[in-house]
Every structure is written in C-alpha cells, then in structure tokens.
Task: inverse folding
C-alpha cells in the first residue's frame, strides 16, 4: 500500500507492507484522513508519535471501511464505515486500529467530513465538557476559532447551550464562523463581551494568560493550542482574585485505556449529534494522496476555515 513517511524532517510518499489485523484490532481501508498541526510538529521532530503507533507515518484521524477484523473483535464486520482518532499512520491507504477506538460514520456523511471529525471533536468535547465542565448559560470565549478545532469547539459550546464568543482575526471568515452558532469578534474586541465562565486558548502567545482577567469569579482557562508561542507570564494575583482554574490538556500522551474511554464518550454523546445534523465538519480543502505536499502546505498556511483532508 502507499503511505506518507517522515524522512529528514520532510514528507515523502512511499510503499509500505500491507498491514494485518492483530488481536482486538481491525484494518481500515482509509477513504479520508485529516491533517493536524501535530503532523507538522512530528515531522520537525518536536512531537514524537505515542508508543504503539507508527513512528514515521503521520496522520492522526481517519475514516474508511473495515477491511479485516482481527481475533477477539466483536460488533464490527468488513465493510462497516468507521472513523477514529489514532496515534499516527493515518496518511496511508490502510491502517490498523484498535476496535475500542472506532466510531461509526453516520449514514450519508461524506468521507471528507468523517475524516475531519475525530481529532477536532474529541479535543473539543474533552476540553469543553469533560474538563472545563461548561453548562447551559455559560459565556465561553474560544480563540483561533476558524480552524479545525475552533469550529468544533464553537459548535459544541453552542449545542451545550452556552453563549459562545468566537475570536477570529480574519474579518472575511466572521460570517462563516457565526453560522456555526457564535457571536464573532476580532481579538481586540474579546474584552467587550466578557466576563467569561470558560476561555479556550487555541492560539497561545506571550499575552494569552492576560485573558485570566476576562474571567468571571471561579472561571476556567483551558489551554489546548499554543502554536502562537508556548511561553507566557502568569499574573498569579489575577488567578487568585478570580479564584480561577488554569488547565492544560493534550490527548496524545494518554494511555490506551483513557483514549478508549474518550472514544466511548464520543460514540454516546457526540456522534449522535453529527448524525442528526446538529454538528457539521467544515472542510477547507481536500487533496488526493499523491498531492500530500500541497495538503501539508495548505495546513501550514493561514486563512483556513475548518479542516484539510487527504483522500487516499
Ligand atoms: N491539546 C490537544 O489535545 C490538541 C488537539 C488538537 C489540536 N491542538 C492544537 O490546537 C490548535 C488549533 O488546532 P487547529 O487544528 O484548529 O489549527 P488550525 O486549523 O490551523 O487553526 C488555527 C487557528 O488559529 C488562528 N491563529 C493562529 N495564530 C493566531 C494569532 N496569533 N492570533 C489569532 N488567531 C490566530 C488561525 O488563524 P489564521 O488562519 O488567521 O492564521 C486559525 O484560524 C493548534 O495549536 C493545535 O496544535 C491541540
């Protein structure tokens, strides 16, 4: 099978042996695979793949049809449409996935949308609901809200009944983000819409912790993305006065059991909303596998609305 490989901090398309489904696993024929900033970090050598996953094949989320079912797997059969958040290996024509990570793809959902669902919506559900504990009526600020994770965060905050303020620096994307259920502001207008119960940090940068001052008493800042800079001074007095919680999170470093629990939460609580059309996966661009270099270039470029997807 063909698949992308990381070599000398760059990507190359090559031929890999066809995978075989071991115990508890299935082989998925990949129909679509999302691209994520972590793929670029992995290529730069700053974010290695978690144990048990291909160390040199990027791709953290896939959708496709089950091709082989390994020993001990129940409830899945060849031909089933599935999607999954994986630890790597997704940018290839086939991948081995533990069955406990599989999510069903709703009938009629196009592959490109299914492929962009697992990473963004797992991150968003985990951060907003399971960790920050947002509730109906909360005011939520989401920074960097036009990207893959931001568009998922905005929708999940809105369906949770929160008043959602999305911070988007490009005015040309404001209407599209607003259509997902948010009030949209530019970064310099964030303060006018506070105070907030929850602030989701998807950008980072040296000033990002100043947003603690925009919290309501006992509010939460949850740090999910720091591509704009991973070092910021903390005014501890603001944190104390607000009696605030400051949370940092990643999914990559979690144990297989923790990832299976998160997948179960997605199956129960989020996939049904996708199936009913209450959530959608905005897709910025799609590329065939042999245009992988263009896909990674689009991922790295500014001005996206939603996800970049490879269609092997
Ligand atoms: N912790 C986790 O488990 C986890 C999981 C998934 C992703 N992440 C991280 O979350 C972040 C967002 O991921 P994504 O997939 O949504 O990325 P994305 O699709 O590239 O979106 C990033 C968004 O942030 C905006 N942005 C970047 N720099 C900005 C700045 N200085 N000021 C204002 N807006 C800025 C971008 O706007 P422009 O288009 O204008 O540049 C874009 O809309 C990334 O850092 C990613 O690594 C973390």
Result:
């Amino acid at each position: 099978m063909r698949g992308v490989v990381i070599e000398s901090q760059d990507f190359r398309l090559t031929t890999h042996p066809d995978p075989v489904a071991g115990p508890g696993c299935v082989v998925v024929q990949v129909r679509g695979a999302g691209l994520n900033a972590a793929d670029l970090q992995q290529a730069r050598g700053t974010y290695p793949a978690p144990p048990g996953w291909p160390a040199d094949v990027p791709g953290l989320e896939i959708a496709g049809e089950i091709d082989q079912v390994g020993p001990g797997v129940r409830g899945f059969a060849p031909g089933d449409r599935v999607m999954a958040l994986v630890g790597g290996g997704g940018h290839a024509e086939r991948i081995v996935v533990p069955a406990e990570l599989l999510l069903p793809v709703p009938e009629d959902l196009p592959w490109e949308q299914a492929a962009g669902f697992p990473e963004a919506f797992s991150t968003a559900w985990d951060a907003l609901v399971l960790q920050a504990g947002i509730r109906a009526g909360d005011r939520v600020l989401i920074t960097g809200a036009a990207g893959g994770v931001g568009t998922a965060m905005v929708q999940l905050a809105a369906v949770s009944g929160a008043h959602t303020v999305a911070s988007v620096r490009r005015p040309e994307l404001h209407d599209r983000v607003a259509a997902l259920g948010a009030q949209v502001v530019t970064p310099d207008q964030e303060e006018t819409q506070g105070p907030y119960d929850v602030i989701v940090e998807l950008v980072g940068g040296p000033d990002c912790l100043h947003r603690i001052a925009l919290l309501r008493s006992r509010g939460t800042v949850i740090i999910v993305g720091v591509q704009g800079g991973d070092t910021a001074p903390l005014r501890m007095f603001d944190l104390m006065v607000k009696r605030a919680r400051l949370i940092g999170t990643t999914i990559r470093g979690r144990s297989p059991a923790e990832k299976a629990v998160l997948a179960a939460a997605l199956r129960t609580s989020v996939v049904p909303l996708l199936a009913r059309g209450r959530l959608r996966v905005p897709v910025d661009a799609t590329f065939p596998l042999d245009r992988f270099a263009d896909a990674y270039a689009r991922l790295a470029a500014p001005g996206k609305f939603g996800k970049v997807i490879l269609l092997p």
Q: What stands out?
A: The chain has two domains: 2-117+253-311, 120-248. The domain at 120-248 is CATH 3.90.180.10 (Quinone Oxidoreductase; Chain A, domain 1). The chain is about 25% helix and 25% strand.
